[in-house]
Design a protein that fits this description.
The structure holds two protein chains of two kinds. By secondary structure, chain A is an alpha/beta fold. Helices cover 24% and strands 22% of the residues of chain A. The radius of gyration of chain A is 20 Å and the shape is globular. Among the domains of chain B are: 251 residues, Rossmann fold, CATH 3.40.50; 65 residues, no CATH class. Classes of the chains: A alpha/beta, B alpha/beta. At the A-B interface, α1, α4, α5, β9 and β10 of A face α2, α3, α4, β1 and α8 of B.
Chain lengths: 196, 454
C-alpha cells in the first residue's frame, strides 16, 4: 500500500497550514498541596467514583485469604494474601475463574482519583487486572501526585509500556445516563493506601 | 443525503425522543459544568489543546512519518488508506489471514464512518459491537444519534424489550439499568474470552512514541485491545499529537467535557507489541477518507481538531430538539454540521451548515476552542456561491455599482410594488415570515434634484 502512503502524504503537504509559534503551555504542571492534603484528596476522589478505600493492608489480605486471588509474579511477599495464585501466563478462562487480583501501581493522581498501571513487576500484565471481577490495588504514599501533568512526569521513561489509567470501577451511563457500576472490567475496585 | 430540515421534521414530531434528549443533554451539561468549574486553569488547558492541534495541522506530514516509524520500531505494522474501501479491505485481509470469522470491536466513530461492519459482513466476518449502547443499536439495526451516548434516544423499557427479543430470549428481565448491564456483560464475556481478533478506533496517536490511546468507561475497550492475539486500530490521520506529554492536556480536557467526569474509568495506552502482554500482532490503519480536503480549507480545517467529546451536542439548542439522526451522519450536532459537509463535499450536505442558530454555545463548550460558528458561516458562504441567492447578490452589486441602473431600479421597484407583497422565486422565503417594507414614493435623490435643482 505504499502508493496510498505516497498519495496521502502528497495530499497532506499540499493542504496543511504553515508552522507557527510553539504551543502555549500556561497550564498548571505542579500542585500546591502537601503530602497529607494529597492523600486526603485522593481518598475523597476515589470514594467519589465508588472505589472502596482501605488503610490497613493486613486486614484486607486476611479478608482475601479465603478467595482465589491472583497476583503478578513481582508482587512483594508481604503484599500477597495467603493461598494466592501467581500469574505465570494464565489463560483468559483461568483468569476468569479467579475471584480477584492484588497488584501495586506506578502512580496515583489525587485530583482525578486515578491509578496508573504501567505493567511493572508488581502490576503484572494487562489481562490480570482486567478479567477478574475484583481488583485490589495497593498505593504507597510516595506514589501519590496531585495533578495529571505530575503523573506524566512520573511516567517518563515508561511511555512505551502498556499503560492503563483506572478511575473507579467499570461503569456505563448508556441507559438514560444512570451510572451503573460493573460492565466488563472489574466491578469492584479496592484501593489500599499505605505509608511507605 | 436528505436535507436537514426534512430529516429534522420526523424527529420533531417524536415527543418520546425529545423527552429522552432533553433529559440526557441537561444531565450531562450540568455534570460537565460542575467538573469544569473545579479546574482553575481550564482556559489555559483549552488554549494549550487548541495550539497543539493547530501545530499538528501545520506539520501533519512530519508527524505521520514519525508515527509510522515509531509504531514500526515497536513491532507494529502501519497501513495507509486513502478512502473507506481501502481501509475496510485492509481490516478484512487481516481477519482473513487469521481465518477469523468473528471479531470483537470497540465503539469507534471512525469505523462507523467507513461502515466497516457492513464491509466485514460482506466478506464473511461478523463484527461484534461491545460497547453497551453500540450493542443495543447493532441488535436493533439502528444507528447512533450521539457521539458519546449512541443510544441516547432509547429509554430503559425499549432496551429491555430489545434484549428479551434478542440476547435474553425467554428470560424474565426487568428494566433496572443494573440488570440490563448484567445481561450485556454475560453475553459479551464469552465473546471476549474467545476472540482471536480485536478492532478499535483511537482517540489519539502519539507521533513521538507510536502510542495509541483509547478512552472509555465500560472496560470493553480494554477487553478488545488486550485479550485477542491480533489487534487492528483504524486511526484518522488528524488524531495525532506530537509528544507523549501532550496527552496530559487532552486527558484533562476530554473526560470533563465528555461524560462530565474528572477522569473516565479506563484509558488504555499501548505502543506496538509488548512481550507476553496483550496482542502479539498489531496493525494501525491511517485513514484519510476526506480529511485532507478538510485540511486544505484554511478556515474549516479546525474541524479536524475535534477530540470527539460531544460537549457541543449537549449545549446545542438545535440538537436538543432534533436529535442526532437528522444530521444524516455519524458526526451529529454542531461539530457534525461543520465536519460532514467538509468530509463528504459541500454538495453532499449543503443544508447542514444551516442546522444552527449561531448562538455560539458550542464554541464556548469546545475543549479545544473550535470556532464552530465561524466555520458554519464560512461554509454557508461557500454553499451559496453557486445558488440563486448569490446570483441575485451579483446582480445587486452591479446595480449598486452604476448610478443609471440604480435609479432605474428604484423607479421599477415602486412601479412593481403594489401587487408584490412577497418576493418572487428563490427570494420568497425571505418574505414568508416578513412583510416587505414599502418603498417610499420618492427617493432621497429624487427629492434632492426636485428641491435643489440639478
Amino acid at each position: 500500500m505504499s502508493a496510498a502512503r505516497e498519495e496521502i502524504l502528497r495530499r497532506v503537504r499540499a493542504a496543511q497550514g504553515r508552522a507557527h509559534a510553539p504551543s502555549s503551555r500556561a497550564y498548571r504542571t505542579t500542585g500546591t498541596r502537601d503530602a497529607a492534603e494529597r492523600d486526603a484528596l485522593l481518598h475523597q476522589r476515589l470514594v467519589d467514583y465508588r472505589a472502596r478505600v482501605e488503610r490497613d493492608l493486613v486486614v484486607v489480605l486476611d479478608e482475601l485469604a479465603a478467595s482465589r486471588i491472583g497476583v503478578p509474579p513481582g508482587l512483594p511477599a508481604d503484599w500477597r494474601p495467603a493461598n494466592c495464585v501467581e500469574d505465570q501466563g494464565l489463560s483468559p478462562q483461568e483468569l476468569d475463574a479467579l475471584d480477584g487480583v492484588v497488584t501495586g501501581c506506578t502512580v496515583a493522581i489525587a485530583e482525578t482519583g486515578t491509578i496508573v498501571l504501567a505493567g511493572g513487576p508488581a502490576e503484572g500484565r494487562r489481562a490480570l487486572t482486567l478479567v477478574p471481577d475484583l481488583h485490589v490495588c495497593i498505593v504507597r504514599a510516595d506514589q501519590v501526585v496531585e495533578t495529571v501533568p505530575e503523573a506524566f512526569a512520573a511516567l517518563r521513561g515508561l511511555e512505551r509500556r502498556p499503560l492503563t489509567f483506572v478511575s473507579g470501577p467499570s461503569a456505563t451511563s448508556d441507559i438514560e445516563l444512570k451510572r451503573v457500576e460493573g460492565v466488563h472490567g472489574p466491578r469492584r475496585l479496592v484501593v489500599v493506601m499505605i505509608d511507605v | 443525503m436528505t436535507s436537514f430540515p426534512e430529516a429534522a421534521r420526523v424527529a420533531l414530531g417524536d415527543s418520546q425522543l425529545r423527552h429522552n434528549l432533553r433529559n440526557a443533554t441537561t444531565t450531562i451539561r450540568d455534570k460537565r459544568a460542575r467538573v469544569v468549574a473545579e479546574v482553575p486553569d481550564w482556559e489555559e488547558l483549552r488554549e494549550a489543546g487548541r495550539a497543539i492541534k493547530a501545530d499538528v495541522m501545520a506539520r501533519l506530514d512530519e508527524y505521520l512519518v514519525q508515527f509510522e516509524e515509531s509504531v514500526h520500531a515497536a513491532g507494529g505494522t502501519v497501513h495507509w488508506a486513502r478512502d473507506a474501501a481501502e481501509a475496510n479491505r485492509i481490516v478484512l485481509d487481516v481477519a482473513r489471514s487469521h481465518g477469523a470469522d468473528e471479531l470483537v470491536k470497540v465503539k469507534s466513530l471512525t469505523t462507523d464512518e467507513i461502515q466497516l461492519n457492513d464491509a466485514l459482513a460482506a466478506g464473511g466476518v461478523q463484527a461484534v459491537e461491545t460497547d453497551f449502547a453500540e450493542l443495543i443499536l447493532q441488535l436493533d439495526g439502528d444507528w447512533s444519534s450521539h457521539i458519546l451516548v449512541p443510544a441516547i434516544h432509547r429509554n430503559r423499557a425499549e432496551i429491555r424489550d430489545l434484549f428479551v427479543r434478542t440476547i435474553a430470549r425467554g428470560q424474565d428481565l426487568s428494566d433496572a439499568p443494573s440488570e440490563l448491564a448484567e445481561t450485556a456483560r454475560v453475553y459479551l464475556r464469552e465473546k471476549f474470552l474467545s476472540a482471536k481478533l480485536g478492532v478499535s478506533g483511537a482517540t489519539f496517536g502519539v507521533a513521538e512514541t507510536g502510542t495509541v490511546v483509547v478512552v472509555e468507561s465500560e472496560g470493553n475497550g480494554r477487553m478488545c485491545t488486550t485479550l485477542p492475539a491480533v489487534l487492528v486500530t483504524v486511526l484518522g490521520i488528524e488524531k495525532l499529537v506530537p509528544r507523549f506529554a501532550d496527552l496530559e492536556v487532552f486527558l484533562q480536557l476530554l473526560p470533563r467535557s465528555s461524560t462530565g467526569e474528572r477522569m473516565n474509568p479506563y484509558t488504555s495506552l499501548w505502543t506496538g507489541v509488548t512481550a507476553a502482554d496483550g496482542p502479539q500482532e498489531l496493525h494501525v490503519v491511517l485513514l484519510d477518507n476526506g480529511r485532507t480536503n478538510v485540511l486544505a480549507d484554511e478556515t474549516g480545517r479546525q474541524a479536524l481538531h475535534c477530540i470527539r467529546c460531544s460537549a457541543c451536542l449537549n449545549v446545542c439548542p438545535v440538537y436538543a430538539r432534533t436529535g442526532g439522526h437528522a444530521y444524516g451522519s455519524v458526526y451529529p450536532g454542531p461539530i457534525g454540521a461543520i465536519l460532514t459537509p467538509q468530509l463528504r463535499g459541500l454538495e453532499q450536505a449543503k443544508s447542514l451548515p444551516y442546522a444552527s442558530s449561531l448562538c455560539g454555545a458550542c464554541y464556548d463548550a469546545c475543549p479545544v476552542k473550535i470556532d464552530i460558528p465561524t466555520v458554519l458561516l464560512h461554509l454557508r458562504a461557500e454553499a451559496e456561491k453557486s445558488t440563486a441567492e448569490s446570483a441575485s447578490m451579483r446582480t445587486l452589486a452591479r446595480i449598486f455599482g452604476s448610478r443609471r441602473l440604480y435609479e432605474r431600479a428604484q423607479r421599477l421597484a415602486r412601479l412593481g410594488e403594489r401587487p408584490a407583497r412577497h418576493l418572487p422565486g428563490p427570494l420568497a422565503r425571505w418574505t414568508e415570515m416578513r412583510d416587505l417594507r414599502p418603498f417610499p414614493t420618492e427617493t432621497f435623490r429624487e427629492w434632492w434634484s426636485r428641491e435643489r435643482g440639478a
